[in-house]
Amino acid sequence: MLSLITAGLAPAIALLFFFYFKDEYEQEPLSSVIRCFLFGALLVFPIMFIQYALMEEGIIKSTFMEAFIQTALIEEFLKWFIVMIAVFHHVHFNQRYDGIVYATAVALGFASAENMLYLISNGLETAFLRALFPVSSHALFGVVMGYYLGCAKFNKKKKVRFLFYSFFFPYLLHSSYNLIFLTQNRWMYFSIPFMIFLWILGIRKVKKANQSQRTFIQKNMAS
Known about the structure:
Radius of gyration: 17 Å
Structural class: mainly alpha
Low-confidence stretches: none
């Protein structure tokens, strides 16, 4: 059981600290980050219930509905909702990069709980691929979500637009990710390039968030 818990949690914790320490200016309180991580982990239960109910009611009738509604829409909306109500207006959310930290914490909390449930059902032999694909992808969806939440927090003129982006782009990426695994027999040929794209996109968002904070500090120093 200890090895299963370790295999389930380790990738998420490693990714969370990777993005946490990418903040070049002010790390968030660990208590706030851990709280978001736990909120994300608890999301797995209502999400599983909703997904099960959709299947039982026969609402999901195609692969596209499974990819775009049953999984991506429900998971990304609830993760976005938790970040909005838990930390978006919090005093510690005081720079653009903070959105990345908190959204990634929620995403990885969910991914770790989902991962452990999957490993319990399917065994530890799936742990490496789970870490490489589902856990990493959730982290990167969180990075994109958090980047645009940071933009929304500090750009009142475009707040509504950035809030929309903060849900829509992770949702679109998640749906695309799902389609690869649901429709392609040789999914490895498509999933690896897609994950490379996700990592490039995520790291660019990290750099842009830090650059925005750097520019903000320089302007304040100049004035």
